[in-house]
Each structure stands twice: as C-alpha cells, then as structure tokens.
Amino acid sequence: MSISKVLNRLSMTALSAAFVIIGTANNAQAAGLLLNGFGGNAGFGELALPRNDDGSSNQLNLPFQINFFGNTFNNFFVNNNGNLTFRSRLGQFTPNPFPIANQPIIAPYWSDVDTRCATCGEVYVASPNSDTVVVTWNNVGYFSNRSDKLNNFQTVLRNRNDTGAGNFDIEFRYETLEWTTGNASGGVNGLGGIPAQAGFDAGDNVNFFTLPGSRTAEVLNIQNTSNLPDPVPGIWSFAVRNGVLPGATPDNPLLPVVIDDEFNFDFNIVNPTQPVFIDPPVAIGYDYIVDSGPNIASVILPTGIGDDLYDLFTFNSTDNDFVDSGIDIAGGFAFNFGDGGVDRFRILGIEPSAGLDPNDITAFVTGLTFTDAGRVQLRQIAISQNTTPAPVPEPATILGSLIALGFGRKLYRMRSHSANKGA
C-alpha cells in the first residue's frame, strides 16, 4: 500500500483502529528510552510520512479527545520538523521562540529534520491502545540531507480522562541527540545557528513552556536531564489538566530539574502578582535563590506544620551569609520583602518532628510572587536536619507549580535573635 493510501486511511479512522498493533501498551518494549513493539519496519508503528524535508502528515484522528489550553482537539498533524500541531500543518524549519500565535503545538524537538538521506531513519506513528499515541523521530538527520549526526526522540500522548474530560499527559523521550541545527537555520555540521526548541505552546501568544536550553546549544542536555520525581535522564513528563499548563493547581505541579542535587526551576512569569508554589522534600529549612530574572517580592509559607511559625533569614552581602532577621513568619500569610524585593532568603524553624512526607507533592508548598514579569531561574536548596546553618542539598526532586491564588493579610512578628527555633 502506498504511503499516501496509508495516510488517507489513517485520517479517516481512529489511530487505534488503523495502526498495525502488536499487543497492548504493556507489551511495548523500550529501545533504550524509546517505546517500541508497535509493528512496522522499525517497531515504531507505521510511517507517518515519506522521506522528506519540511513535510507533514495528513490530518490524523486522535483516539481520544484532548483539552489543550481551553481548545478541544480530536485530530493532529505530525510535522517532520520535530513537532505536532492541531490546526494546520507546519513546515517552519527554524523554531520561532515561544510564545507564538494561532498554532497550538507540542514540540519534543522543533528543528530542521531531513529524512531524505539514505542512511537516515524516518518518522513513525502508532497507537498501541485507545489511550495512547506515540510519534517517533527515529535516527533522523538534518538539513541539507545530512546523516553524519542523528537524533532519536519520541513524544507520547496519554489519555487521562479518568481525572477529568480532556485531560492528558505529554511525555518527551530523548534517546540520542547529536545535532541542534540545520544548515538553513545557520548551522554548521549540525551545530550553531538557531538551535532546536523543545516544549509546548497554547498558540495564544501567552501560555507556553520550554525545556531548559531551548534555542541554545544547551538544548542537547535535555537528553541527560529529567523532570520526573525519580529522574530518568532523557524522559520529561507533563500533565495537562483542565486544559492548562502543569502548575495551574497544587495537585498538578510543574516539575523542576535536579542538577547537582539542587532543585532548579526555569519558567516564564506572565503576571508577577500570581504566586509560584514550589514544594520540596522534608528538611529543617530551605534557601531560595534567584539566579536570573526578577526578584522575589513576597512569600507565603504552608500551614499545619509544627507551630506554623518559620524563622526568616535575609542575606548580608557584606558577610556573604544569611543572618537572622528576627522575624517569625506565620504559615498561610503573605510576607512582603519591600521595595525591590530580594534575590535570596532562607527559611528555618521547620520542626523535624513534623515528619513531612517527601512523596507528598503538597508537603511544603511555598508561594512566591515577583517584582516584575519575565523569565526567572530559581533554585531551592534543602537544609538537612543535621546541618545548621550551611545548606546541604538533599538528593530528591521537588515539585513546583504555578497557581493564581490571592494573598491573605500579612501576619508576622518580630522576635529576639536568641529565640530561634531549633537553635
């Protein structure tokens, strides 16, 4: 059967009915990090499109409905250049920086993929069951017709209507990334120029998320990092609930990246008055440090932990250390750092007896607002029970989320420096 006939057939029926399937998702085997066992000549299902440069599939039917930023989609396009779109095909080979308008997109690796080379792999699509869609860019080359470096990556969409109509998960899997850029995007031998972008975008010119390093040479590092609670290098997962970005509610947090046992967040602030809630594992305290972007304007600490009072330490640049401010902050109430905000602070006074569950994503939810809009890169470093006051990062992943909640009234008290809890 010709590829055009295959694609026409796929566009007329649900993926789950159209694809050659071997067993169910439970039968899928991992080729390295990539899921396979779906039939076809490479085990990744049927060809999504013939060998090409900048091409796209016909419109394909999803076997389930998704709610993506308030828009409901039942169909999608597989684009050769490392992405899925929902309204129309996309042949753009140089990735436009997110956010963009009028093109909702899920992009595991938006770049100038070229599969015309004889030794390159191809792009495949499969639906191992009615709740899963898998698209694989298998050992693909770059423009123009180059195969000296190859990329091998995959995106998986999983139906999660068990949590609500239209809910779904997005998973990116990176087995091998050797090139970032095609020649037409300014690349030389697959590198330089305007590199690949990874992430997803609502197409409303507002809501988006990009993986660290996108459109820089550092994008290659996404194959070595992860946002999973138990990190698996090269696997990234995002839960889309009620049509919105991960992080819109406390039970659907935005997951950070763990680098050198520190918990790293990198996100865009649209409304600086909306708190950003981040939730680390158990400790007696935490340092909050902005590496780049706007300062922290205010903080809300959680309730129901010990006596609900926390010790605030501010940073003394002269001594290059945190010093006790003499202020206790009550959980659940906003503390404002004043004009200009701060780029770092420390919280102590978490009773070890509180026994916070490190697997509970709402164990220690901290709310932060910022002094301005823009991109912020933030670290949160756990201070272990047996270390005072030097921060000792704990080898566990924290969870972070963005949520639009109003601040309550301020409540804090001044205290004597000799009355430090845990001293």
Mean pLDDT: 80
Radius of gyration, in angstroms, nearest whole number: 23 Å
Summarize the amount of helix as a percent range.
under 10%
The total tally of domains equals 2
| DSSP summary, beta strand count | 28
- As a percent range, the share of strand residues is 35-45%
Distance between the termini: 75 Å
* H/E topology pattern: HHEEEEEEEEEEEEEEEEEEEEEEEEEEEE
In terms of quaternary structure, the protein is single chain
Low-confidence spans: 1-31, 386-423
What topology, given as strand order, has the largest sheet?
16-17-26-19-24-21-22-28
In DSSP terms, counting alpha (H) and pi (I) runs of 4 or more, how many helices?
A: 2
Computed structural class: mainly beta
Q: Based on Cα principal axes, name the global outline.
A: elongated
Largest sheet: 8 strands, antiparallel
Q: Could you walk me through the main structural features you see in this protein, from its secondary elements to its overall organization?
A:
The chain has 423 residues and is mainly beta. The chain has two domains: 3-246, no CATH class; 276-419, no CATH class. Helix content is 3%, strand content 40%. It is built from two helices and 28 strands. It has helices at 3-12, 15-18, and strands spanning 29-31, 34-36, 46-47, 60-68, 71-79, 83-85, 105-110, 113-114, 123-129, 132-142, 146-159, 168-176, 197-201, 208-210, 235-240, 257-259, 262-269, 276-279, 285-292, 296-300, 309-316, 321-330, 334-336, 344-348, 366-370, 374-383, 399-402, 412-414. The strands form five sheets. The chain has an eight-stranded antiparallel beta sheet, with no helix packed on it. Strands 3, 8, 9, 10, 11, 12 and 15 form a seven-stranded antiparallel beta sheet that branches. A hairpin with a 3-residue loop joins strand 10 and strand 11.
